[in-house]
Each structure stands twice: as structure tokens, then as C-alpha cells.
Write a structure and sequence with these properties.
Number of strands: 0
Helix content: over 70%
Shape: flat
Radius of gyration: 18 Å
């Protein structure tokens, strides 16, 4: 198990999941996604192409992200902004409602981007102040997700274009499935034997 540096900043962490648990969880998710691409390529292509404009997935992913953000805002230490917590919560509720009514175009992509941004904090907190170099795999995964998520939230058509590129060739889809499954297996291995 890697060493953890003692620091007074440890209290600034939001989540307290171990790096092992986070690595195993992310690894299982990526391995399952890759296995789905390999086992059911036609169904995967249909799902991926429909996802960006899907109203059902759009509402579900956006509400999940908004609910997660609401829960964070309701519980984390806002320091000097603590007295404004109620105002912030109302802004989240009203803003989310307005988005659901007036900004439904590519809502699934924006919701997915929000979830990626929120999940990145889980990964970064798990790797926070650890000394072992293997933690950088999780850290780089988090920042890669952040870069993609920023594009998806700000320019959601980019995910549609990425999906179109991925699904244009069966070979690309197969290689992506193999890469996702392989990287997921590496993360599970690291979570069990290294972290």
C-alpha cells in the first residue's frame, strides 16, 4: 500500500474513498464498457449514436449531475460563503429547472460532462497526497476526463463528432473496446495489488 503524506490540508478533501476502491470501481466500469463494445457492437453503435440527442438519457444524466451538485453544495464547508448556502441551493434548483425546459438540445452530453467533472474530484481526492508514483495513473485519468467534460459541457456537439468517428469503422470500435477493457483490468489489478 502506498504511503500517504500527513498534511493540514487533508481536511480540504471532499471524499474519503481509498485509492484502491476508486481504482477498482473505475476499472470495473471501463472493463464493462469495453466488454459491451466487444460483445454487442451493433447495439453499442445504436446506443452511442442515439445518446447525444436522447431526451430520456438527457433528463436522467442531467438530473443525476444536478442532484449530485446539490448534495455537495448542501453538505460541504463553504467557509465564508456558508451564510449564502440557501441562496446557492435555490439557484441550483431554479437553474436546473430552466435548463430542463429551455436547453434540451444535447442535454445528455451536458449531463455526462457534469458527471465527469464531479467524478474527477472523487479520483483526485483518492490520489491526494499519496507518494507512490502509480497514483499518477488515476490523476491522469481524472484530468483526461476533465478535458473531455469541459468540451462536452461547452460544445456538446463534440461528443456527437467523437461518436461518429468511433463508430465509422468496426476496427475502431473493436480497438476501443479492447483498450477500455485492458485499461480497466490494469486499474483493477492496481487497486487490488498496488494501491
Amino acid at each position: 500500500m502506498g504511503n500517504v503524506i500527513e498534511s493540514p490540508f487533508i481536511h480540504s478533501m471532499i471524499y474519503s474513498l481509498s485509492l484502491s476502491a476508486v481504482s477498482i470501481g473505475l476499472g470495473l466500469f471501463l472493463a464493462a464498457a469495453g466488454a459491451a463494445l466487444l460483445a454487442r457492437p451493433d447495439a453499442s453503435v445504436r446506443f452511442l449514436k442515439a445518446l447525444p440527442r436522447s431526451p430520456g438519457w438527457g433528463s436522467a444524466l442531467f438530473l443525476l449531475g444536478a442532484g449530485w451538485f446539490f448534495a455537495l453544495m448542501a453538505t460541504i464547508d463553504l467557509m465564508e460563503y456558508g451564510p449564502q448556502r440557501g441562496l446557492f441551493l435555490w439557484i441550483i434548483v431554479i437553474g436546473s429547472g430552466l435548463v430542463l425546459v429551455f436547453a434540451r438540445e444535447f442535454l445528455a452530453v451536458r449531463g455526462l460532462g457534469i458527471l465527469f467533472l464531479l467524478a474527477a474530484q472523487v479520483l483526485l481526492d483518492a490520489a491526494f497526497l499519496r507518494e507512490d508514483p502509480a497514483r499518477l495513473i488515476i490523476t491522469l485519468s481524472a484530468y483526461t476526463g476533465i478535458v473531455f467534460a469541459c468540451f462536452w459541457v461547452g460544445a456538446p456537439y463534440t461528443l456527437r463528432d467523437q461518436i461518429a468517428w468511433l463508430t465509422a469503422s468496426p476496427r475502431r470500435l473493436r480497438l476501443s473496446g479492447l483498450a477500455s477493457t485492458g485499461f480497466g483490468a490494469v486499474l483493477v489489478f492496481l487497486g487490488i495489488f498496488v494501491y
